[in-house]
Amino acid sequence: MSAGSSVAGETTGGLSGESIIREIKNSRIGFVVSVPDITTSEGLLRPLAAQSEPRLVRICKEDEGVAICAGLAYTGQRGLLLIQQTGLLDSINAVRGIAVEYSLPICMMVGLLQKEPGVPPRQSKSYGVRIVEPILDAMGIAYHEIEQQADVAKIRPAIDGAFAQSKPVVLLIGQTPS
Amino acid sequence: MMKRDDCLRVIARHVTDKDIVAPVYSTAFDWIDIRPSALNYFAHGAMGLASSHALGLALGRPDKRVIVLDGDGSLLMNLGTLVTVAEAAPKNLFHFVCENGTYEANGGHPIPGRGTVSFAGLARAAGHKNVYEFSDLKIFEQQVGAILSEPGPVFVCLKIVSSGDQERDYTRLHGAPVRKAFKDALDAG
Question: Is A69 an interface residue toward B (CB < 8 Å)?
Answer without folding.
Answer: yes
